Every structure is written in C-alpha cells, then in structure tokens.
C-alpha cells in the first residue's frame, strides 16, 4: 500500500538543486583557463555533497534506505557529462574554426600521473595553443588540422572533431538525469507496511479491556 506522495518542501528542493549544481558547474568549467576557480569549486563540492544528502534525506522518510547509493552516484556522475559535453556546448556557440599547423610540441613530465603535452599552433597570422587530453592525441610537428577557438578566450581550444552533437547531447542528458532523480525523490509515493495501515484503520485495542 502507499500513502499520498510526500509534501514538497520548497527549502529542501532549493537546497538540493543548489547542491547538485555545484559539481555540474565544476565539470562545466573544468576546461577553462580559470584554474583557481575550478579548484575552489572542487572544495565547495565536498560541502555541496553533504547538503545534497541532507536535503534529499528530509524529502523521504528516515526508514527508507534505497536512496543512499543512487544519490551518491547521481551527484558524482553529474560531473562527467558536464566536463565532457559542456566544453563542446560552449564552443558550439562561441567557437570559430581555424585551420592550423603544428609548429612545436612541448612535453610536461609528471610524477603523479601521465605526462601532459602542449602543441604550439600557427593559424594564419595567429599563434595558438592546444592541450590534447591524451598522449595519443598529440600531432607531430608539421601536421595540419582544424581547431575550434573560443572567441571569448574563456575556454581552451579543441580539435574540430571534439566539438560534436553527441557531446552536446551528453551534457543535456546529464542535466535531465539530475533533475529527474530529484523529482523522483520528491514525488515518489511513500510505502508503508500493510499491518500499520490496518492498525490505523481499526484502532489499537485498549489495554486491560474485558469482553462482555
């Protein structure tokens, strides 16, 4: 049996919405040149996770345990569609394509992970930089390629095939999953045991009562 769906608590919904927005914005801005901002949002995400769990917990009965794993997966998972698709979405709107040639390739050794690379590009009368996300994406010197350049200078540049429709759709899907999960938690009816319903309908027997 089910009860009427829980009353929507505006404060908890607003808190949960603000909390899930933090990792989404962090992922979206991860490909910008604003390193300090991204690091600050990373620390803020830890606070947002606690707020997310608390807000969702207040939207459901304390006896329900099914939300614990899904709410963590949705929170952490919201970061990746925003990081992968958000960059593509931005450059789809504010980017322009330039035909370039690789002039230099610089390797940056790392003691904590894979080495990173920066390619110096000559694009007509402009000199640009491109930071491939993977080592196998590094083009040798002399290679010609098309690059999408951010006209605002806010986001880093991408190769033309990294700005695509499926990446844009991925960003939208990530937003829909977060919003859909929040709506599910807020609107899903609350289940209660059959015995509890019967007891509420029939009333508890009085203690010490006698039959006639």
Task: Explain the overall architecture.
- The chain has 212 residues and is α+β, with helices and mostly antiparallel strands.
- The chain has helices at residues 10-29, 35-59, 68-77, 79-94, 165-187, 194-202; strands at 95-108, 116-123, 126-130, 144-150, 158-159.
- A hairpin with a 7-residue loop joins strand 1 and strand 2.
- Helix 1 packs antiparallel against helix 5 (165-187) and helix 2 (35-59) runs antiparallel to helix 3.
- The radius of gyration is 26 Å and the shape is elongated.
- The model is unreliable at 1-7 (pLDDT under 50).
Distance between the termini: 35 Å
Structural category: alpha+beta
Strand order of the largest sheet: 3-2-1-4-5
What Rg do the Cα atoms give? 26 Å
The low-confidence parts are 1-7
Order of secondary-structure elements: HHHHEEEEEHH
Number of helices: 6
Strand content: 15-25%
The total strand number stands at: 5
Main beta sheet: 5 strands, antiparallel
Residue share in helices?
Answer: 40-55%
Write down the overall geometry: elongated
Please state the average pLDDT score.
82
Question: Key features?
Answer:
212 residues, alpha+beta, five-stranded antiparallel sheet, 6 helices, disordered N terminus
Record the SSE blueprint:
Elements: H1 10-29, H2 35-59, H3 68-77, H4 79-94, E1 95-108, E2 116-123, E3 126-130, E4 144-150, E5 158-159, H5 165-187, H6 194-202
Antiparallel strand pairs: 1-2, 1-4, 2-3, 4-5
Summarize this, please?
The chain has helices at 10-29, 35-59, 68-77, 79-94, 165-187, 194-202, and strands at residues 95-108, 116-123, 126-130, 144-150, 158-159.
């Amino acid at each position: 049996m089910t009860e009427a769906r829980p009353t929507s608590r505006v404060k908890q919904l607003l808190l949960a919405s603000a909390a899930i927005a933090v990792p989404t914005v962090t992922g979206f801005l991860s490909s910008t040149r604003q390193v300090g901002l991204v690091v600050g949002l990373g620390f803020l995400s830890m606070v947002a996770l606690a707020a997310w769990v608390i807000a969702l917990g207040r939207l459901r009965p304390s006896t329900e345990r099914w939300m614990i794993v899904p709410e963590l997966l949705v929170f952490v998972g919201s970061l990746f569609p925003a990081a992968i698709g958000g960059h593509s979405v931005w450059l789809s709107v504010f980017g322009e394509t330039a035909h370039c040639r690789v002039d230099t390739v610089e390797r940056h050794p790392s003691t904590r992970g894979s080495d990173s690379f920066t390619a110096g590009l000559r694009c007509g009368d402009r000199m640009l930089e491109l930071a491939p996300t993977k080592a196998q994406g590094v083009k040798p010197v002399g290679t010609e390629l098309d690059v999408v350049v951010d006209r605002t200078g806010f986001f880093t540049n991408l190769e033309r095939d990294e700005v695509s429709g499926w990446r844009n759709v991925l960003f939208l899907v990530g937003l829909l999953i977060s919003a859909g999960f929040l709506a599910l938690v807020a609107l899903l009816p609350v289940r209660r045991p059959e015995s509890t319903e019967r007891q509420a309908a029939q009333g508890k027997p009085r203690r010490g009562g006698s039959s006639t």
